Amino acid sequence: MLRLPFVLLANLLLGLRLLLGLPFRLVAARRRPAWVRFRLAGSLPYRPSPGPRLRLKGMKVEPATVTSLEAFGRALRVLAADPRVEGILLEVEGLALTDARREALLALLADFQAAGKRVVSWAVMVDTNEYPVLGAADEVLLAPMGRVELVGYAAEAAVLGEAFGRVGIHAHFARRGDYKTAPEFFTDGKVSDIQRQTLETFLDERFGVLVEALRRSRGKTPEEAKALIDAGPYSAKRALEAGLVDGLVHQADLGAHLGLEGRKQDGGDEAPVPTFGAYLATHAFPPVRWLPLRRRPRLAVVDVTGIIVPGSGGAGRFAAADTVVKALRKAGRDPRAKAVVLAVNSPGGSGLASEQLLEAVKRVAKQKPVIAYVDQVCASGGYMAAIGAREIWSAPHAVVGSIGVFIGKFEYGGLLEKLGVQRTTLTRGENAAFGSNSRGFTPHERAALEREVEESYQSFLELVAQARGRAKEEIHERAEGRVYSGLRARDAGLVDRIGGFEEVCRHAMEEARQPSDDFEIVRYGDRARSKLSLLKLLSGAAHPTLYAFCMASWSLQGSFGTSRRMD
Q1: Are the beta carbons of 481 and 387 closer than 8 angstroms?
Q2: How many whole angstroms separate alpha carbon 130 and alpha carbon 451?
Q3: Predicted local distance difference test score (pLDDT) of residue 258
Q4: Is the separation of the CB atoms in 46 and 501 below 8 Å?
Q5: For residue range 88-145, what is the model confidence (pLDDT) as tens digits?
């Protein structure tokens, strides 16, 4: 009842604001810019963070800086429809995107170029991950002192078995699956052939994507593209000679390079290329985000981000089961939330906690459509949670799978002896000291351990087989800890579709039979800073615990880095 008067008042204020600024915009309209500048930096979220709704579109954006892919797409559509606009200038600086977000960004630029507009990019320095964005432009510029750190991808794997042994720590694990290499980080003295093969597969795939990006953007053959990568890194002069950039231009000279009228600033330098906010100020009636009279349908997004652990609290590095379950229940109870996207970015974690998430996802899926989406990693326990959804979507090169389990503990007895600490363990019951970190497992305890891990693995296979509509034997052939890219996971039947975040959101609303062109996204869950720590997690692992976990963490910061750690 109170919404209608509020909406009418809010829209009235927006209209008054629009009318009051009309005379100034009419004067400025004579100087509508032909080029608009955007700055691409950071991780670029898909959607902007919630903020004040009473604003003109784009007017609250920090000058030139893109705040989200969704906002950037809106801006490009406005510019593409204006015949006076020739193109955009992209300043690339410290852009750190996942593969999925980079592909979404490139798709936006491709649509803009397809509308007959030009894209000019400029940077001081870019690395292997940033260059595909820089190179997608019609004209690629670099600062004369700049660099192109195009070197390809490298993977590094480490193991701690020998180091642990030297200080008197021994890891005791049982696992199911030759490809379940997570325990090797603690037990082995060298990287296994299976771990090496897994990394090689991902390296080949990522390198192939990079070569194809160079082939498309710079008109090279695959062999020429590989030769360019092998010859990196590049100074500005060498990048120009190699054809990686089209020109060397100082930032202050970009306006002149684009043919804009020279307007001096107070310091005597050329004024920068106008931002999107400045462009909107030249529209008599710029686009306004009017508040709708009726509430828009809502799409709930529930994040499963980080290592899955029991309990509550935690965000970012850890997905606490109780916290995620509460978020799922809240999304399920919300009558305005017509569908749910389960955004999984987790290598797994506690088997018990992962099954809690699976059960919660299944319950919500009985009430409304739930679609799981993988942007980066959905492995082990993370995949277990995802199979409760109606469908699983993945980015092309996300890490998916690792269906397997391991159980174990750390023995500190040798370290304690070195420190002069003496312990005596007294028991009543064959397995009473099963979790003791003073010694390893007895044969009787080891038998119980093997029985537990086998039962857990078979249960995992049954859950996946039921969810994916396949025989248990088929899933076993794809399991044993095997890790897939999103594309290969789709071919293996572990993923339903390949797509981007926005596409998944629209599909979820279509599944709920709701309009897929105008809806609001609301994230559910505790975003508080995690109070858990890696040390606390490791100390908890001193006791035998079931893990559905993939201990591979990939980072693409100019090279293909693998940090063998629990995150």
Answers
A1: no
A2: 48
A3: 92
A4: yes
A5: 999 999 999 999 999 999 999 999 999 999 999 999 999 999 999 999 999 999 999 9
Contact 403, 461 (CB under 8 A): yes
Flag the least confident range among 54-68, 135-149, 352-366.
Answer: 54-68
- Alpha helices by DSSP H, listed for 219-253, are 222-230, 236-242
243, amino acid identity? G
**CA–CA dist 303, 401 (Å, integer):** 18
Contact yes or no for 541/327 (Cβ under 8 A): no
As a whole number of Å, the CA-based R_g of the chain is: 27
For 316: left if phi > 0, alpha if psi spans -120 to 50, otherwise beta; the answer is: left
Distances (CA, A) of 171 to 34, 208, 213, 423, 548: 64, 38, 43, 19, 17
State residue 439's pLDDT score. Answer: 87
Q: How far apart are CA 358 and CA 378, in angstroms?
A: 13
**What mean pLDDT do residues 285-295 have?**
62
Task: Give this prediction's pTM.
Answer: 0.83
DSSP annotation of 30: G
Measured from the Cβ of residue 193, the count of other Cβ atoms closer than 10 Å reads: 8
Distances (CA, A) of 91 to 221, 273, 277: 27, 11, 16
- Cβ atoms within 10 A of the Cβ of 518, count? 10
Quick count: other Cβ atoms within 10 Å of Cβ 544? 21
Q: Please choose, from the candidates 456, 466, 347, 354, the residue with its C-alpha nearest in 3D space to the C-alpha of residue 408.
A: 456
Residue 156's pLDDT band (cuts 50, 70, 90): confident
Cα separation, 229 vs 249, whole angstroms: 23
pLDDT of residue 416: 85
- Mean pLDDT in residue range 249-255: 93
Dihedral angle over CA of 181, 184, 185, 190, nearest 10: -120
* SS3 of residue 482 by DSSP: coil
Distance CA 326, CA 389 (A): 17
- Which residue would you say has higher pLDDT here, 428 or 551? 428
CA distance 339 to 443: 50
Tokens of residue 405, six digits? 């389990």
Q: How many CB atoms within 10 Å of residue 240?
A: 19
Q: Which residue carries 């919660």 as its tokens? A: 360
Name the amino acid, one letter, at 16: L
Residue 78 near residue 130, CB atoms below 8 Å? no
Please enumerate in sequence order all residues whose Cβ is within 8 A of that of 281, keeping only pairs 6 or more positions apart, or say none: 24, 25, 28
How far is the C-alpha of 523 from the C-alpha of 242, rounded, in Å?
46
